[in-house]
Amino acid sequence: MNALDYFNARLEATISPMDYLKLSQMEPDKYFLIDVRNGPINVRSLTIKDAHVIPQLELPNRLNEIPKDKEIIVYCWDVWCNTAAKVAKFLLERGYKVKELTGGIAAWKEMNFPVLDSSQDVEVSDNCGC
């Protein structure tokens, strides 16, 4: 693979937080954003506003919640986390159109984009199901 092919593939498979924010504001019904992070709810209580929370470990049992007629955007913790890439591959193999949000929730927060904190709304459990 040459550099041009690499960058074309990268652009096809990912979307930046800025691009996602702009595009989802212009066409809100086109996208379905999924927070796929695993782990205890208390450490992942901060989510991107309007994201659907479907942890990777629950995904196979919750496919019916994911529309096939929308572009699916998945995110996890940050650039070092590959959970979103694993979920993207899983969904692509099942016929979904998917992109990974570059940088995950960490990049989103760094840019001060809208988030939702559900820590006051949930009961904290020590059992993460990992």
TrEMBL record:
Domain of life: Bacteria
The Rhodanese domain, residue ranges: 27-117
Coiled-coil ranges from the UniProt annotation: none
Pfam families: Rhodanese
Matching PROSITE patterns: RHODANESE_3 (PS50206)
Stated name of the protein: Rhodanese-like domain-containing protein
